Amino acid sequence: MTRGWWLAAGAAAAAMLAGSQAIGSGDPGPLIDYVTSHALHPIDRAALAAGRVGIVKPRAPEAVRYLDWRLLNGLDAGAAVTEQLATPCCGDWQDLTGVWTEARRAVPGVSDVYWISTERRGPDYTAIPTCFGDAFTTAAATLKARIAAHGTSSTWVRAWVDGQDAVFEACSKPGVVLPALDPAAPAWLRADRLYQQAALALYDGRLADAERTFAAIGRDASSPWQKLAPYLQARTIQRAALTTRDPAAFARAHGAIATLAAAPEGTYGKSEVGRMQQVLDYSEHPAALRDRLDQALNAKAAAPDIAVKFKDYWSLSADRLDKPEAADWIATLGSRNRAEGLAHADERWQATRRNAWLIAALSLAAREDAAATRLAEAAEHVPATDPAWLTARYHLLRLNVGRAPDAALRGQVDAILARDDLTPSDRNIFLAVRAQLATSLADFAAHALRQPYCTPGVATCLDFDAGIALTQLGHRGRDWAGFGDDARMLIDRLPLADRLALGRMDMLPPELRLDLALTNFTRAVLLRNDTAVDETARALVTLLPQVRGDWQRILRTAPGPDKRFATLFVMAKIPSLRTDLEGYARPYGTERSFGGYWSDWLVRVPRAMPAPAFRPAWLYVPASWQNRSAGEEPPPADIACDGKCGSPFPARIAPFAGPLQPAALRERSAFRTAADLPKGIAGGTTLWEEALAYVAAHPRDPRAGEALYRLNRVGRWGGNHNQLSRRAFRLLHARYPGTIWAKRSPFYYD
Hints:
- By secondary structure, the chain is mainly α.
- It has 34 helices and seven strands.
- It has a domain at about 230-285.
- The strands form three sheets. The protein has a three-stranded antiparallel β-sheet. A two-stranded antiparallel ribbon has the order 1-2.
- A hairpin with a 2-residue loop joins strand 4 and strand 5 (about 480-485).
């Protein structure tokens, strides 16, 4: 019997959920971040605060690039400046609204609120921010005070929460009204309700109503909100000016700000006067404001509100042709048109002789560019004391690898790696460079491991869950380590004998030796190399003990059909097995929780099928396939810096591995799958058909029923070549109908 597509879809969803709960479980894991272009980790922030630029990343956020500009030009930075500029300016509202949603849970009977929209729909599919973080922190603090004074079970506290919920509902919805207030409400609640009324009117765009209400609060000496009212009234008048763009409204706003500025020291909101004036200038006099901001941002001493100033500066500069120099450098460094960006950066470098412009030109230069040799010569003369030195050395290596003698380049990289002031990101980059210069397998192994940014307890992982990432990492002492993208590529291009030798090296974490052992085992089976099968099985007894009995059976079975079936039997238990680290995922948890998809390996192939090639280098680079349209050519593989340092560092096979490539390529003729069959070419025999044939010929084998159950699953989740699922299902139910394996296989899949 067959089951429809809806069951298959449900099973796939269930498998995905199971994989997400059992970390990894053999499903292809997320990406590991070895090179970061952000400065989110305390180590990176500390380095920048100390004036160490590291390798400048053109992919970094604009504010971080501006921080690089300051350091490259000898302007002050420090911890406070770094913290401001390295902290993302936007997207943090969820955490700030969470302060309120968590605080309100202290009141019995309120319904849970998990998310509050802070924006209203604007024209042309835009969104207009309405409510900001300070509103939620103020609300949370006020609720805490009201609970302390009146108790969580107070009817009036509950009424206060209902009113505040309505206020925040108005952040995204028009026409919201406050709940009716009981005439018997106490004075404190009536005062708070007036404040809520003003806030709701402000969010709803009824600015005249909001202004009048804030003014009334300011006249009420008994209101706990009186001290805030003048500032909020001025902000409301300012918002009216920005909304109407009327000259008279701007004049009123300037007057309100001037009144606030003249208020006694300590008046609430007086410290915001400069920012409020800047907001008006942004709309009224953008060019003049940009020039003032440029002067302030290029002063040696950093402004206290440097991040706020930079945000407006960049907004006023980014789309203009006549950018001020700092904005010009930031934009040129991140230029999408490499040739135009290089020409401009080179012209500015020759005109100014500022090393910041040399760095921009180097970041955009490729080996074939006419300016590359001249720029490399200039990079040679950047002194070691200059903040630009490390970036200059990286690009010098990038331009010289393959041209200059490897021995000289190895010495340069070794000297850099001997430093104790490299961030993990920069150390990982130079390790990748050094691995491409390795003279032996041991030399390569000594430089193959990278320290990831995504580790438990460090909330600096981008785009994925840190816990799942551990399926690709291993323990190195108290830290974590994984193979770099460049290392994974080279390992996959080694012959089996060299991969086996690498797997014996104790310097590698056991988890990574497991990954090597499983991919080596798969290769050994496909190559019919029983010696290698036994070596990997012997290691896997310890490395993957969940199926220890299967490894031990392989070891005690003599070469021949029985041993062959023993290897296929265990392979049917581990869906994520692959011949390469690219595409492989580590099995995790119990054997029943192993997830992923089986490969449909061909053991006999049609004559017309071409020999397989190495996996392309771009597959090993996380950023190389992201945001790419179907059919679009992949960008050049940058296996050293993941495309974050500018022009790519060319993928290169280490010198020791060059002579090994022909042997590795010959082995790959045994690593073909049914999915590799070109269109119009059919036939071939798979590994799983070989297992099915063995079971058919050995009906008394105690593993036969279980093997057929597993082959049915392989057919469902592994290509189903020549209707493997149907054939395994029928044989299982014909021969072993009363077994647990038949009961677990109520369907087959076409």
